[in-house]
């Protein structure tokens, strides 16, 4: 699996004519790749717009075109007020509150909404799609707030704040990071406020793009992070005088879950040639079986990888979908539907939070074993330079434990909840946005937990000298020692914990291991 940010593809990303991919979402959201609209998108958008214009000029009751929204769907709107209806919708729905959402999430959301525009199922004009393309390329990021989406009828408030910025209202964060009024941000680049036509306001706010954007980013990040977890596990196995025999291919073949097999292959490769492992391979070794946190590492990692694969499959379907209500069909019909319900995305966001919690849990257990002299087979208490005077990594494990406890709370699924809204018209919602928000916190915590295990395992490996670890572990230890000192008198640890977390987050740990043993799975 690729490292988090290694070789990020910053070539232009073309929307329209085909589904987007997870790497493309990451490229635009995180690395500011330029966005282009495929020329083939013009025709289906034009056909769909013509169908909307024809219906908007008629007396037919079309949801969101000639009627109000939500519980107000029975209220008829006269033709003279239908454009004003769209602007009123955006303004009223831009009701988010709380902390500002991360820039990369908002950019992912806007890219995915733009992708849906280009399918020809929303009926928006090309001017609307081009405005989102321009804002992405100019680095104009609408200020979106934490709270406001129930994950049904789309991520309404987050999407509405983006639409509001396109209208020249609300707030925008510029490419320099300054927050300015939306109209000022547009004017600085010679752009006039967008004026909406029939149905366009509804098309701007009615999608699952926020939760899907967070899912795409999570799939990318967890794919690399689970590989980093294998590196951490291998280092701990070495430092704790564990065996690599349990990772043998013939044993994994007895229970051949693909993710388990991949993780075991990684561990087997990472431990190859380790003098530490060889030192206790003989019949005189008194340890019959390693603890579960060592022996079962590929089983837990394999289950997490299977969960991730399911999430990736769901993301792929969603990235090829057009979410709006109503939708314009190829034959010109404009039909109401329920495709805006976020259950498919919300479920897998919750599944991934469970996997992240368990991966952190087993990592913390290995760290605790490294620090406990009664279980570490000869390592000093808390990996301290002078136990008693020095506390070593004692409190770093406390930090791990606190995060693991938090991860368990974050694993409580959001998608099992539902709060009726809009006068009971919208009486079952997905809470998928909430699932995405807590998953992002979970991924951050998992990166930190794995980083602390790597830091502790590196100390343990150095304390096994003169025995030397395998080439992969040696490469990771050398990476750490470029900026983080080894065993010695107690010192301020917080900066070191941040440094190792960043090495995990950037993918440097996995790259170091791969430089010694080749690509990992």
Briefly summarize what is shown:
Pathway: Amino-acid degradation; L-histidine degradation into L-glutamate; N-formimidoyl-L-glutamate from L-histidine: step 1/3. By secondary structure, this protein is mostly helical.
Task: Give a verbal description of the structure.
This protein is mainly alpha-helical and 521 residues long. It folds into 2 domains: 13-207, Fumarase/aspartase (N-terminal domain) (Fumarase C, Chain B, domain 1), CATH 1.10.275.10; 214-517, Fumarase C, Chain A, domain 2. 54% of the residues lie in helices and 5% in strands. The chain is built from 20 helices and 9 strands. It has helices at 22-31, 42-56, 82-93, 103-117, 126-137, 156-166, 182-187, 200-205, 209-239, 249-252, 258-271, 275-278, 292-295, 297-319, 343-371, 394-410, 432-463, 471-481, 494-506, 508-517; strands spanning 13-15, 35-37, 97-100, 141-142, 145-147, 171-173, 179-181, 327-328, 334-335. Strands 4-6-7 form a 3-stranded antiparallel β-sheet. Strand 6 (171-173) and strand 7 form a beta hairpin. It catalyses: L-histidine = trans-urocanate + NH4(+). Keywords: Histidine metabolism, Lyase.
Q: How many beta-strand segments? A: 9
Stretches where pLDDT falls below 50 for ≥5 residues? none
**Average of the residue pLDDT scores:** 94
The number of helical segments is 20
Shape: elongated
Gap between N and C termini: 5 Å
Structural class by SSE content: mainly alpha
Beta-strand content: under 5%
Question: What is the correct CATH architecture of the largest domain?
Answer: Up-down Bundle
Question: What summary fits the major beta sheet?
Answer: 3 strands, antiparallel
The oligomeric state is single chain
- Which bin fits the share of residues in helices? 40-55%
How would you write the strand order of the largest sheet?
4-6-7
Order of helices and strands: EHEHHEHHEEHEEHHHHHHHHEEHHHHHH
Taking Cα atoms only, what radius of gyration do you get, to the nearest Å?
26 Å
Fourth-tier CATH superfamily name of the largest domain: Fumarase/aspartase (Central domain)
């Amino acid at each position: 699996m690729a490292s988090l940010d290694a070789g990020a593809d910053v070539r232009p990303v073309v929307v329209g004519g085909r589904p987007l991919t997870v790497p493309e979402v990451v490229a635009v959201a995180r690395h500011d790749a330029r966005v282009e609209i495929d020329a083939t998108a013009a025709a289906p958008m034009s056909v769909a717009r013509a169908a909307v214009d024809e219906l908007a000029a008629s007396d037919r009751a079309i949801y969101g075109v000639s009627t109000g929204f939500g519980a107000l769907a029975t209220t008829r709107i006269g033709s003279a007020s239908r454009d004003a209806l769209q602007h009123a919708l955006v303004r009223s729905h831009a009701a988010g509150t709380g902390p500002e959402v991360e820039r990369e999430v908002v950019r992912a959301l806007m890219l995915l909404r733009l992708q849906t525009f280009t399918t020809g199922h929303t009926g928006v004009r090309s001017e609307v799609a081009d405005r989102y393309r321009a804002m992405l390329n100019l680095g104009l990021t609408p200020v979106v707030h934490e709270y406001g989406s129930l994950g049904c009828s789309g991520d309404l408030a987050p999407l509405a704040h983006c639409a509001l910025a396109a209208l020249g209202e609300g707030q925008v964060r510029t490419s320099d990071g300054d927050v300015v009024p939306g109209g000022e941000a547009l004017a600085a680049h010679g752009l006039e406020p967008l004026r909406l036509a029939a149905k366009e306001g509804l098309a701007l706010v009615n999608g699952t793009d926020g939760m899907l954007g967070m899912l795409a980013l999570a799939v990318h990040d967890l794919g690399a992070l689970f590989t980093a977890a294998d590196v951490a596990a291998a280092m701990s196995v070495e430092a704790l005088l564990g065996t690599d025999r349990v990772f043998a291919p013939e044993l994994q073949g007895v229970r051949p879950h693909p993710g388990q097999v991949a993780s075991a292959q990684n561990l087997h490769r990472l431990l190859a040639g380790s003098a530490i492992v060889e030192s206790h391979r003989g019949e005189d070794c008194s340890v019959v079986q390693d603890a579960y946190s060592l022996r079962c590492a590929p089983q837990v990692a394999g289950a997490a990888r299977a969960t991730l694969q399911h999430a990736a499959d769901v993301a792929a379907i969603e990235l090829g979908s057009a979410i709006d209500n109503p939708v314009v069909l190829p034959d010109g019909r404009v039909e109401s539907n329920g495709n805006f319900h976020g259950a498919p995305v919300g479920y897998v966001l919750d599944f991934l939070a469970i996997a992240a919690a368990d991966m952190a849990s087993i990592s913390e257990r290995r760290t605790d074993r490294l620090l406990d002299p009664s279980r570490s087979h000869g390592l000093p208490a808390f990996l301290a330079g002078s136990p008693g005077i020095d506390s070593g990594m004692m409190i770093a494990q406390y930090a791990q434990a606190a995060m693991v406890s938090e991860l368990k709370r974050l694993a409580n699924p959001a998608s099992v909840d539902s709060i009726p809204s809009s006068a009971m018209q919208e009486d079952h919602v997905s809470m998928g946005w909430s699932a995405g928000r807590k998953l992002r916190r979970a991924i951050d915590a998992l990166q930190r937990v794995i980083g602390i295990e790597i830091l502790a395992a590196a100390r343990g490996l150095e304390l096994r000298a003169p025995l030397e670890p395998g080439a992969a572990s040696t490469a990771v230890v050398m990476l750490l020692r470029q900026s983080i000192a080894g065993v010695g008198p107690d010192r301020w640890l917080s900066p070191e914990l941040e440094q190792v977390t960043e090495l995990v987050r950037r993918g440097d740990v996995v790259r170091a291991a791969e430089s010694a043993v080749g690509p990992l799975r």
